[in-house]
Amino acid sequence: MLLNLQITKVLLVLGVLVIAGGILLISLSRATLETTMNLDREDKLKIVPVIDEGETIYKLPETKMLPSNIFYRFKSLRNWLWWQFSFGEEEETKILFILADKKIAEAEIMAKNGKNRLAFKAGMEAVDKLKYINEKVTKIEGKDVAKEQLLGRIREASIAYSEIIYRIEIQDNKKTVLLKEINEIKEKTEKNLEN
Prior knowledge:
Blueprint (H helix, E strand, L loop, with lengths): L1 H40 L4 E7 L2 E7 L10 H14 L3 H24 L3 H23 L6 H23 L4 H23 L1
Antiparallel strand pairs: 1-2
């Protein structure tokens, strides 16, 4: 009986710690989301230039934590929470752009560090997010200014992503897959801009 009481106390303490940890994670995620969105609005988030032929064609957010970091799973969970906390099409799209840009930046860094498998995985996640954004924007009815701006941003991102994927060193077959996906996004975006 004494053993059952001790086990119950331990389980209760563990339960309280798990709940407290969850509340803390959610609170930190909301706070970092707000900070990130403010930096994006003030155009201070994207500071790493993507250069093509000596010209800056796009800017990416700085990436400090990579998949090889022990705390990366927390970052992934935080990013998922950011997406869940986004309310409305416009905010969700902005967050997805940020997350996609962070992923392509990770892909570039991982490739430079010789971690080709992780570079491909990050590149694929970036492309998938951009594809999802494109699908969401395509479903917007009519031809208004906001839709055209989003399509323009998708076009800019896909051009920059192509440049990054083209120059990173990953296996040719994987590079081909990524470039094919990006080209499909570009084609769909161009068709939507023409309509």
